[in-house]
What does this fold into?
Amino acid sequence: MGQMDGHTGGDVTQAEMLTGAEIVLRALTDQGVDTIFGYPGGAVLPIYDAIYAQDRVRHILVRHEQGAGHMAEGYARSTGRCGVALATSGPGATNMVTPIADALMDSIPMVVITGQVPTHLIGSDAFQEADTVGITRACTKHNYLVRDVNDLARIIHEAFYIATSGRPGPVVIDIPKNVQFARGPYVGPGAIEHRTYRPRTIPVDHRIEEAVALMARAERPIIYSGGGVINSGPKASEALRELATLTGFPVTSTLMGLGAFPASSPQWLGMLGMHGSFEANNAMHDCDVMVCVGARFDDRVTGRLDAFSPGSKKIHIDIDPSSINKNVRADVPIVADCGEALSALVAAWAARGRQKGPDLSPWREQIEQWRARKCFAYPASTGIIKPQYAIERLYALTKDRDVYITTEVGQHQMWAAQFFHFDQPNRWMTSGGLGTMGYGLPAAVGVQAAHPSALVIDIAGDASVQMTMQEISTAIQHDLPIKIFILNNEWMGMVRQWQQLLHGERYSHSYSDSLPDFVKLAEAYGAHGIRCNSPADLDDAILEMINTPRPVIFDCRVEKAENCFPMIPSGAAHNEMILGSITGDEIGEAGKVLV
Amino acid sequence: MTRPPKSPRAQKSAARSGVREDPASAYDMTDAKEQIEHRTLACIVDNEPGVLARVVGLFSARGYNIESLTVAEIDRNAHQSRITIVTSGTNHILEQIEQQLLRLVPVARVIDVTQSGGIERELALVKVAGQGERRVEALRISEIFRARVIDTTNESFIFEVTGASMKIDQFVELMRPLGLVEVSRTGVLSIQRGKEKGG
It folds into this structure.
């Protein structure tokens, strides 16, 4: 990441004088931005004038600023480029806080421009004033309040550099209205070198040697890859595949890392973690060498930390030094860009020549035994649509197309991760770290804006989708034919599941009474609505959705009480997965306090 | 800019924390048995608006302690400030604090003053009121501590005393029975020994 487009830096002495608002648009253009997502308001009107006066940057008008933020995330995640969102001061900026925090947790490159009251009114509790840099300080990678138009162009270019380099993340630029009106010099992107911010991307040689030495002796190795591989760009995914092919190591991945390694490979173990596969979690527990690349030992992944992969040596590749030794101690820490480190490992492994390592076949046989448990199996039904079946059919009917999947958060998200398979990176957009219900619909709009002819499907739940439902209107306005595939069980399914398993079946406020009629809702917005109640009709209904050239809301009525398995209960270890349905108090007090 | 994690230290603390009889993991992360240490860190930062809030916010957001904090610009031309923080935690936490500080964009470097054997000093202004024998005793003790009298009335002194924090603690304790009124302290300042620049 972090490639600046080829414009050379301007010299201040011969710099063009532009208004602040013009500088914003010029800088976006020079950064190669073709689409921004925003909502106007008093403190950004000069920027909207500048948008009006040009046609190089397309503006997608949203219905709520949170939508703009998630759209920018979806755009970024599906293209590998920086997403850009624009909002006014005060409520515009505070509405943007959730997607900013989401982008920080999932390391999504995003630049958010907010308007601010004029500098002379800052601190006076002016109309629509909020301390945007104060509010977003804890949920951005960095943020700026631009007090002087002379700094504006430099700050915008710097913001893009910071957002996209190192461990990517969101950067907020807060621009007071008088700075948008003021005239100042425009300078181009040029070569950015920050005084204090210098991410390390190239691995240290001796660490690569140590890693290869460990890997070469491994009898029960595993590669555990994460979202960092996708953030690093397509070359990192290629290097991951090459390393797996060379070594023969099995590969598992986090929720955020799906697609970096092809699900069609026999070496693929499926996702790991709380709702990951039995084979992936058991292999993590029993391995002797773990190659963690671009993942951060999140609590959803590790389960009980003191019983996490007890017998293994751990190689941890991460571009962020603070990730290393944060939750799990690394034996071989490698601070580097995933792509660089994986390429170095591939080269070092290849340089070993044809040295014979330990025989991995007993390990493979063990893994096949775990795989044979068929942990994702579910009882089939001819009368009612099982949510797993719905995703299986959706996958089967769309896999040969140019398909992108986004999700909301909850059971449907986990079923999507389990039953929809990805062979390419950047095809899977989900809110992993923050777990933001309402992410998927606007993210799908952002993905569709970047890939107009692709099939973009938001796999949704009936509860999540209502959090940002209004963005269907954005999709209609901008002719972005997203498909919203709702697994409708009338419950907040994951909340219901936890209440069943952990809270004595006390279903407190997890049932959504008075759900809208999603088909009529679709029609009210000008979209196409489809409802399906029966497994027999499902294929035809999915095909109808695919073949509708407009936005579609698909109300897929599924089994109401289905639970998402397998599951590592809170406070349990990887080898203590629950495979089938349980009820009652299997989870200890210590586990219940965890989230 | 970023330092590689110090693996010997990490290994040592991993071994130390693997305290269970039958450890479920060689990587038992329970910190309960790990010793809490005090550490003085000096952050050299770009002196831009909000930089102190970023540093302090990091400590509160991640639940780290701040025992003392001092900050001032040290190079006007280079726009650099030095923030000296005394904190405490297990070795693992202290290592995280250092790495988390380095993630902040305006932080140029973090110097572990304690581990690199730096010098720490604090300045205190101490107001003592009293008459007769107690007043004489306060003055006598102040001489032992090489404190300066910077203001006096017939019934009070203000002493200026510098030194390690512990020395100031002692001075304040000795003044307490002699009519201590109030204390103002700068917090800890630090610098590296020798001719080299810190960090």
Remarks:
- Confidence is low (pLDDT under 50) at residues 1-10 of chain A.
- Residues 414 and 447 of chain A are 20 Å apart (CA to CA).
